Amino acid sequence: MTGATRGIGREVVAQLVAAGHEVLLGARDRAAGDRAAAAIGAEVVELDVTDDASVARAAQMVRRRGGLDVLVNNAGVPGHACDATEIDAATIRAVFETNVFGVVRTMHAFAGLLRASAQPVVVNVSSGLGSIAAAVDPDAHVDTVPVWVPALHYGASKAALNMLTVQYARACPWMRINAVDPGFTATDFNDHRGTRSVADAARVVVDLATIGFDGPTATFTGDHGTVPW
Ligand SMILES: NC(=O)c1ccc[n+]([C@@H]2O[C@H](COP(=O)([O-])OP(=O)(O)OC[C@H]3O[C@@H](n4cnc5c(N)ncnc54)[C@H](OP(=O)(O)O)[C@@H]3O)[C@@H](O)[C@H]2O)c1
C-alpha cells in the first residue's frame, strides 16, 4: 500500500488489518510511517514512489518477507490550484512524477512478485477528475470544481493513470487491475473540504483490493458503481 501515512491510504490499511489481512503500510517518511502503523498494528515499508532506488528496496523487502498478493497504488499529490495558462512543464511533470510515473515504478518493481502470486490484484487510486467523460460533462463535478480546481495537471495525471490501468490489464491478463475513485474526501489533500469521510472513501478501495481472481479487471469504480472513463 503506497502513501499510507495519512488520509485515505491510512484508513485503507486500517480496514484491511481489521478484516484480518497482513498489510504493509507504505511511507516515504519512516517516522510518519511508524506513527501511523503503531495506531493500526501494521508493518511499515519505506517507499517513495518518485525514487527508483527506494521502490526497488521496498520490493526487495517484500520479497524477503515472502511476496505479495495485492498492490494498492494510492500515493498521490494534488499540485497547486492555479490558472491553466500558469502551468508550465515543470509543474505538470512534478505531479506526473508521483501520480503517473510513481505507479509505473511500483508496477515495474513489483511485477515479478505479483506474477508469483496465485491471485495478483492491483488497485490504482484514481479520481473522478481523471474522467474525460466527466470533464466534458457540464453537470459533473459541480460540488468539487468550484472549491478545488487543480484540474489541468491533476486531472491529466489521473486520466493518464486510468489509461495505464487499462493497458496493464490488457498486457497482463494474469492479474486483476482496476482504477477506483474514492470520491471527494475530507483529507489534507483538499484542506479537508471534501464531503466524504475517509471511512467511506477507503471502503471503495478495500472492495477492489479484496476481489478474487474471478473479479473484474480494467474497470473504473466509485461509490455509485462504474465511473465513465
Ligand atoms: N481526497 C480526495 O478528495 C481524493 C479524491 C479522489 C482521489 N484521491 C486520491 O486518493 C489518494 C490519497 O489521497 P488522500 O486524500 O488520502 O491524500 P493525503 O491525505 O494528502 O495523503 C497522501 C498520501 O500520499 C503520500 N505520498 C505523497 N507523495 C508520495 C511519494 N512520493 N511517495 C510515497 N507516498 C507519497 C503521502 O505521504 P506523506 O505523509 O509522506 O506526505 C500521504 O500518505 C491520492 O492518489 C489522491 O489522488 C483523493
Q: How does the SSE layout of this entry go?
A:
Elements: H1 7-18, E1 24-27, H2 30-40, E2 43-46, H3 52-64, E3 70-73, H4 89-99, H5 101-116, E4 121-125, H6 132-135, H7 151-171, E5 176-180, H8 198-209, E6 220-222, E7 225-226
Parallel strand pairs: 1-2, 3-4, 4-5, 5-6
Antiparallel strand pairs: 6-7
Helix pairs in contact: 1-8, 3-5, 4-7
The structure holds NADP nicotinamide-adenine-dinucleotide phosphate.
Organism: Saccharopolyspora rosea
Keywords: NADP, Oxidoreductase
Protein name: SDR family NAD(P)-dependent oxidoreductase
In short, what is this structure?
The chain is of the alpha/beta class and 229 residues long.
CATH superfamily of one domain: NAD(P)-binding Rossmann-like Domain
Shape: globular
The level-1 CATH class of one domain: Alpha Beta
H/E element sequence: HEHEHEHHEHHEHEE
Protein name: SDR family NAD(P)-dependent oxidoreductase
InterPro entries: NAD(P)-bd_dom_sf, SDR_fam
Family: Belongs to the short-chain dehydrogenases/reductases (SDR) family.
Keywords: NADP, Oxidoreductase
Annotation keywords:
229 residues; alpha/beta; Rossmann fold; 5-stranded mixed β-sheet; two-stranded parallel sheet; binds NADP nicotinamide-adenine-dinucleotide phosphate
Outline the structure in words.
- The structure is a single chain.
- The protein contains 8 helices and 7 strands.
- The protein is an alpha/beta fold and 229 residues long.
- The chain has a domain at 68-226: NAD(P)-binding Rossmann-like Domain (Rossmann fold), CATH 3.40.50.
- Strands 3-4-5-6-7 form a 5-stranded mixed sheet, sandwiched between helices. It has a two-stranded parallel ribbon with strand order 1-2.
- α4 (89-99) crosses α7 (151-171).
- Bound molecules: NADP nicotinamide-adenine-dinucleotide phosphate.
- The site of NADP nicotinamide-adenine-dinucleotide phosphate has 31 residues, from α1.
- NADP nicotinamide-adenine-dinucleotide phosphate binds next to α1.
